[in-house]
Specification:
single chain; 501 residues; alpha/beta; Arc Repressor Mutant, subunit A; Rossmann fold; Serine Threonine Protein Phosphatase 5, Tetratricopeptide repeat; 4 domains; six-stranded mixed β-sheet; three-stranded antiparallel β-sheet; 56% helix; 11% strand
């Protein structure tokens, strides 16, 4: 018997505890399968095979289970569990209306952490100071009572000559955190302030000693003070637990800072340099959870994701799992594990971990992107675009990973011209992505462009089986998504007059 069951699914939360408890085991399993593929048609054969794997039953048993679920969910007009004639069933979730108060994301205070300044400039200290600002922003993402605007956007907006208040207004922040580091005679102090944009009132100002190892815990003190000045009733327990993701080793901290400073694209050569820094961070402090997470990402990137050999995939999974054991209350370790899992083909586990990560760090851009990658591989292209738009709200000037993921989602959604536009924003296209672009162009009807790009790719690497690399290079859960991609690739090669293996 299931007790006080709450089923959490994609777009909303179905809280039907009293009625769900009464569901028979097979009916509850049916509900879970439909919820896990919300927005997708699940065929009758799939449901029969999954729910009654060892016995032969008629469709009457499935029909009865559907009836039980609809009764439990009060779905009298069959709009939640829809019958798709001749195919199967689809769970069509309505927008989440459970949150109707000030905890809606749009109503939460938006906080912007400006890149910290340095007086005078010191190259070694600059990396530490940049990393500290990022850690403050990441620490704030753990609070469901706040929305945190990415520091990447602030750094870009500063190039236009705006001051901190101007940047905050541009990015629609309610509060802005500024910091200036002073480094002299081996002593580092950090002068901080928190300003409310609506009133231009400086609500908090403090100078912290960050000399030596003191910088390692400075982010923790800053976050606690900022949140204490913005809201009451903060999630102190989550804040306290979250500190386990950090390090008390300055060498490890510096290596992670250097790796993150270079982490601007998934170019293989860049990833190789980042991997060296993350390995050095782990060597300096084996308990540094986020360094393990980032090391897993970098090693998988070096081997081009799904094209990585089996031993590399298994090793990166172990790295990511270890990070979760070291920092179980930091959402980034959970979503990072989910990211590695989906590349390795563990779709349901990946989504479960990423969802939990977002519960812990609801406005973390890092967690949102990990989740978007997982959703993309699970075939929910339109949902991916929505997630990326949410990321754009937190990071309005975008970051490097938006274009490739958005392009793939637009392609899968059949919006080929928009997909081409997205891919053309990628600064450096790998051979695999150039083939993908050729497929997009072919489907968009730009036959000459598709022909030219495929011919150029083949001329550059004539001995490479580009079609096989496309087949293996994208971990897509559903056969129809894989077929969609490969049909487009075949069309591009046919237009180019290149023989297919």
């Amino acid at each position: 018997m299931l007790n006080d069951t709450v089923l959490d699914v994609n777009a909303g939360t179905l809280t039907r505890a009293a009625k769900l408890v009464a569901l028979r085991q097979k009916s509850f399993l049916l509900l879970g399968l439909l919820a896990g593929k919300a927005g997708q048609v699940v065929t009758k054969d799939e449901l029969l095979d999954a729910i009654w794997p060892d016995v032969t039953v008629t469709e009457d048993s499935l029909t009865q289970a559907i009836r039980d679920v609809r009764t439990a969910l009060a779905d009298t007009d069959a709009t939640l569990i829809r019958t798709i004639r001749g195919r199967g069933y689809l769970m069509d979730l309505p927008p989440d209306s459970a949150v109707q108060d000030g905890n809606q994301p749009s109503a939460l205070p938006r906080v912007l952490v400006m890149p910290f300044l340095q007086r005078p400039y010191d190259a070694k200290m600059a990396l530490r100071i940049d990393a500290l600002a990022e850690d403050v922003a990441s620490g704030l993402t753990r609070y469901r009572t706040l929305r945190v605007v990415s520091t990447v956007s602030a750094r870009g907006a500063l190039l236009d000559g705006r001051d901190a208040v101007g940047v905050a207004q541009l990015l629609r922040a309610d509060y802005v955190i500024e910091g200036t580091a002073f480094y002299q005679d081996d002593k580092l102090t950090l002068r901080l302030s928190l300003t409310e944009i609506a009133s231009f009132e400086q609500v908090w100002r403090e100078t912290l000693d960050c000399t030596g190892d003191a910088i390692l815990s400075a982010w923790d003190r800053i976050v606690a003070r900022v949140v204490g000045h913005i809201v009451n009733g903060i999630e102190v327990e989550g804040h306290r637990h979250g500190s386990s993701a950090q390090t008390s080793n300055l060498t490890a901290y510096d290596h992670r800072a250097r790796g993150l400073a270079l982490w601007t694209s998934d170019d293989v050569e860049t990833a190789q340099v980042c991997l060296g820094h993350f390995k050095a961070a782990v060597k300096a402090d084996p308990g540094f959870a986020l360094a393990w997470t980032h090391m897993a990402w970098a090693e998988l990137t070096v081997h081009e994701y799904a094209l990585a050999p089996a031993d590399v995939r298994e090793r990166t999974l172990e790295y990511a799992r270890h990070a979760v054991t070291l920092a179980p209350f930091d959402g980034r370790t959970h979503s990072g594990l989910g990211y590695i899992q989906v590349i390795c083909g563990h779709f349901a586990q990946a989504e479960a971990n990423a969802r939990f990560g977002l519960q812990l760090n609801p406005s973390s851009v890092e967690c949102l992107f990990d989740y978007a990658v997982i959703v993309m591989n699970r075939g929910r292209a339109i949902e991916v675009i929505g997630i990326l738009d949410e990321v754009a709200d937190l990071c309005p000037l975008r970051i490097a990973y938006d274009a490739p993921l958005r392009g793939q989602a637009l392609f899968m959604a059949g919006r080929y011209c928009e997909a081409v536009d997205a891919f053309l924003q990628i600064p450096k296209l790998s051979l695999r992505r150039r083939v993908f672009l050729g497929a997009m162009l072919a489907k968009a009807g730009r036959t000459d462009d598709a022909k030219a790009i495929i011919q150029a790719v083949v001329a550059e690497q004539p001995d490479m089986d580009h079609i096989d690399i496309m087949r293996r290079g994208y971990t897509l859960e559903h056969a129809h998504d894989r077929q969609h991609l490969m049909d487009a690739v075949a069309l591009a090669f046919d237009l180019a007059g290149v023989a297919r293996p």
